[in-house]
Structure formats: structure tokens, C-alpha cells
Amino acid sequence: QVQLVESGGGLVQAGESLRLSCAASGRTSSSYAMGWFRQAPGKEREFVAAISWTGRTTSYANSVKGRFTISRDNAKSTVYLQMNSLTPEDTGVYYCAADARPRTALAAVGSAYDYWGQGTQVTVSS
Question: What percentage of the chain has pLDDT greater than the value 70?
């Protein structure tokens, strides 16, 4: 079992930055690919970014490409999401997730992930 705890959310103005963290604990969590998803009010959960267990491969949704950066520190069992140039459209609950199965490519669908955190709220005001 893997436990994931997100932190770093908050209320910011458009154009500002936030860095989210996801601390993992439990079973060999550092060997899992990790992803970030978000869910805005009244909308379905959507993929934001993913990173391989080595950190060498990353993937982003088109809506955040060039503004968000996913990274990980396996020594600290932590995954980060640096979010720059935030807009009100980035508002939502952000979840980190762990993909425990070996794949040839990073997954961008929630059903591929086995473990989820409780989420952290990000609110961007205009």
C-alpha cells in the first residue's frame, strides 16, 4: 500500500506561482510513475502531468505545457508540481497519483493509477 499526501495549495492571483508537493510513503513508492490530476467544480477530473520513476521522462497536458513543471526527488519520496503563470482556469483540487504497473509510456488517464492522495485546493483569482 502507498500513501500520498499533497500540500502547497492555496489562493493566489492570476500570474502568480505555486509549488505543490506530494509526499509518498509505503511500499516502494519511489519505483512508481507519478501523475498530477485536477478537478474543477462541475467538471471531470483531468490529467495535468506525469513523470517516470527515474524522473527522465515527463508528460504534460497541452493546457499546462510551458507553464507547469513536474519533478521528483526519490530520496525524499516526493513529487513536485511547479505551477507558473497561473490563470483562473487552473483553479481546482489537485491530486497526485501513483502508477504501480510497468508501462512503456506514461499514462494520462486516471484509471491507470493505483493510489491517490486526498487532494489540495488551488484557487486562482482574476
Answer: 98
